[in-house]
Amino acid sequence: MKKFIETLKNIWTIDELRQKIVVTLALLITYRLGTHIVLPGIDPNALEAVKGKTTGLLGLFDQFAGGAFSQASILALGIMPYISASIFMQLVTILVPQFQKIQKEGESGRKKINQWTRYLTVLVTVFQAGAYITYLQSPGYKEALIPAYEPFFVISTIILLTAGTLFVMWLGEKITDKGLGNGTSLIIMVGILARLPQSFLQEFTAKNSKGGGGVLVFIIEIAILVAIIMGLIVLVQGVRKIAINYAKQIVGNKQFGGARQFLPIKVNSAGVMPIIFAQAIIFIPTIFAKFDTTGDFMKILNDHSNGWYMLIYSVLVIGFTYLYTAIIFNPKQIAEDLKRNNGFIPGVKPGQPTADYIGSVMDKVTLPGAILLAFVGILPGVAQKLGVTGGFSSFFGGTSLLIMVGVILDTLQQIETHLLMRQYDGLMSGGRIQGRQAVSSSPIG
Q: Transmembrane residues, as ranges (predicted)?
């Protein structure tokens, strides 16, 4: 405990780190305040009956938006349109040669792609805003609409939702530039954590009610949740190391190379992206259905505990894991870089044989990683089937838990880097904290 207090003091004594923490907290608080501002034309008092009642994929969307979706807030769409646009642009820059050239132009190319991403975010937000307006006109929310404001409701809502998403996007960029950690990831994590106390209390109340199982069952659930988190940390940080040797070079009187290093192949190289891709694909029919989930097929897609949903979801996650890993991981490029720097894998010829070897190792490592990722994705539905309340079950796995674990690891890694740079002790005595920064350059880390 004494060491922990000393570490906190060290963190606060570093001026740069203290400023980053203050800026990050101020911007996150601003975001949380914005989620409670209700759209014009809606009576906030009439929303009490439907607040927090969204379930399935809409519940997940609401969780990412920090509850703003169900509260009909001006930030109801949150950061998700920007993430969708960023993912699309990231794939385009990898798959389209013209965009690859622009990306390689350096800072100017990056600014162009960022600007196009913002334009695409506006288009995505306007499209989703139209669907959200239809959702607000459904039973439950329709009663909260103020009749006198109805002629202006559609246009004002589209403008405000678009402005709200752009504001959240700006907050995320400012946190990344001036604060601590990845801004977009932190905004999503804060939205998820905002619902944890309420979900925790609901689960505790449910277990203490008649026939709920009592405190013992609740303690067992907490123990299982802690075990799942520990397993996720292993999944996020797990690597398969390939030994790399570098040939000795003598220049003048100095010797270079001859060192032995390792090429780390992550078990989960794709990070949380396959789960987000899978949920995005499943969510598309919901958007085209104007958020109407009453149909039989839509009920399956919005029920996490449904067996068919789990099967479809698992297949999509495994498929996208291999697809995204193949996109971001290029064995041929790695083999060329090794050859250029006089590096080689012991027992493997340089060039194409090295690329084939790295590719085969990557495939073998990706398979268990993909299966574990799919299992993590369906854990909330499994927990719900076993009697855990809907809100609390979402913390047993899926995107929510993966993002929280990954973002916390990344943030702690940045804090530890600042401490070690100034010759303070790190946060861990058993070794350095590893984050996900080398995994992906996507907006969610």
A: 21-42, 74-96, 116-133, 153-172, 179-196, 216-236, 270-288, 308-330, 365-383, 395-412
Spatial CB neighbours of 254, under 8 Å, sequence gap ≥ 6: none
Residue 319's SS3 state is: helix
318-347 b/e with 16+ CB inside 10 Å = b?
Answer: bbbbbebbbebbebeebbbebeeeebbbee
440 pLDDT higher than 50: no
Angle at 389 between CA 385 and CA 393, to 5 degrees: 75
Note whether 291 and 172 are same-domain residues. Answer: no
Give the 3-state secondary structure of residue 239.
strand
Q: Is residue 189, in this structure, part of any structural domain at all?
A: no
pLDDT attached to residue 259: 66
Report the alpha-carbon distance of residue 286 to residue 296 in Å, rounded.
12
Bridge partners, 239 (sequence order): 266
In a shared domain, residues 202 and 258: yes
Q: Are residues 279 and 426 in the same domain?
A: yes
Which positions ≥6 away from 322 have C-beta within 8 Å?
366, 370
End-to-end CA distance of the chain: 31
Note the pTM of the prediction, 2 decimals.
Answer: 0.76
CA 274 to CA 234: how far, in whole Å?
18
Asked if residue 245 lies in contact with residue 257, where contact means CB atoms within 8 angstroms, the answer is no
pLDDT band for position 157 (50/70/90)? very high
The share of the chain scoring above pLDDT 90, in percent, equals 11
Task: Examine the fold and report which residue of 124, 151, 179 is the final residue of a domain before the chain moves on.
Answer: 179
Looking up residue 382, the CATH number of its domain turns out to be 1.10.3370.10
Residue 30 lies in a domain: no
Residue 10 lies in a domain: no
pLDDT one-digit tens code per residue, 315-369: 988 988 888 888 778 888 888 888 888 888 888 888 888 889 998 988 888 888 8
Query: Which of 133, 152, 179 marks a domain boundary?
Result: 179
H or E element that contains 243 = strand 239-246
Residue 17, in any domain of the structure: no
Domain residues for the domain of 253 are 196-445
Q: What tokens does 370 get?
A: 């993909």
**What span, in angstroms and rounded, lies between the C-alpha atoms of 345 and 353?**
10
* Nearest alpha carbon to residue 373 among 418, 321, 414: 321
Answer yes or no: do 309 and 438 share one domain: yes
